[in-house]
Amino acid sequence: xxxxxxxxxxxxxxxxxxxxxxxxxxxxxVTLYRAMYESIALxxxxxxxxxxxxxxxxxxxxxxxxxxxxxxxxxxLPVLFVGVRCPLETVMERRIATWxxxxxxxGSVPQPVVLWQESVHVPGIYDLExxxxxxSSEVCANSIRKRLEDGRASTAFRRIADIxxxxxxxxxxxxxxGIDL
Length: 181
Fold this sequence. Notes:
Elements: H1 26-45, E1 50-55, H2 66-74, E2 79-85, H3 88-99, H4 111-119, E3 128-131, H5 137-149, H6 156-167, E4 174-179
Parallel strand pairs: 2-3
Antiparallel strand pairs: 1-4, 2-4
């Protein structure tokens, strides 16, 4: 939703790829992520269930520290941080099937795709991981639901926020985050 409501002049908004291709948008990207996460936090505090499907990275023209900032906003709320993995070969098959575009002219994987795959799983701290090349959407959703229902505390966002504060680390990550489904 946030990407869809972003005015054209600010696109791709929070979908900005790694690589520093639009440094003019980067300060706005930080603000957009903060606004989204503050909204998520408010919904959670009001007892409204929220599911978020968004990806993070910190490969901009300079570090923006977005994931630690977002983790700090939600660290005291019931958040399940899920790492969604998929091997590069499967990503390429899906790109070809969906958009009829895939490999570069020389047969290599396009650099933006490689950079995305490498950057969205840093630091790799999750409450749960799923692999969409091995599991269907339904199985992934059921895994998330079971994890939410098992009563174990979710700690990923707390750990990310604490590590960032202690070590002043800079990193990015990917998430599908369900708050109290």
